[in-house]
Hints:
By secondary structure, this protein is of the alpha/beta class. It contains six helices and eleven strands. It has helices spanning 36-45, 83-94, 114-121, 171-183, 191-197, 220-234; strands at residues 7-12, 30-31, 34-35, 50-57, 74-78, 101-104, 130-136, 141-144, 151-155, 161-170, 202-206. The strands form three sheets. It has a seven-stranded mixed sheet, sandwiched between helices. A two-stranded antiparallel sheet has the order 2-3. Strand 2 and strand 3 form a beta hairpin. Helix 2 (83-94) crosses helix 4 and helix 4 packs across helix 5 (191-197). The chain is globular and about 50 Å long.
Amino acid sequence: MTNKQTIAAIVPAAGVGSRMQHNAPKQYIKLAGKTILEHTLAKLSQLPQLRTIVVALSDSDPYFDELPLLDNRIVRASGGKERADSVLNSLLFLAPNPPIWVLVHDAARPCLSEKDLMSLLDMRESDHSGAILASPVKDTMKRAASNNELISHTESREKLWHALTPQLFRLGELKAAFTSAQKDNVLLTDEASAMEYIGAEVVLVEGASDNIKLTTPSDLPLIEFLLQQRDIKTN
């Protein structure tokens, strides 16, 4: 395996998903015959380039070990209170035998396409620090007033993108970025925000807008439909 191919995936999955109003974390909701997390891990398992798939979980998670996962590259690591904590814990978990690249993907984003994934991996050939999947903003964007009920003004959507996952960076740089940002109490909402904090150049790779994240119960019917359609295409 060449250095270019030395990649690990990190899947932060320690959240409880309180907005889903479900008796288990949202990644364990079943759709199209499998849990959301199983669908996500199955997509990543299709990549022979991955050396390891680290799933960052709450130490008290009772569900993961019951999943019928067949890929022996999947390993469990301790997650944290916030997503950034889970990612940094996973980077430290990989540190004794680090890969060159890490691919970070949301556990609750099971509709990732293979085409988009390969487009992102191609960015390893570039001179930039890393890249993320993203989709251009298409809707009119409104900024709310301080009471969050009235419109303050309309934002230009020019050059605005929705950040998606996976996000791909060199492990050493990403670990340094997270360490620096967290030391300075910087709010990190994704890996790119950590890299932006240290002044790194991050490439936007256009991906499909249906690579959606399960956030509220209203997302469930659409995600289930997308998963069923992809199953039909692959059978």
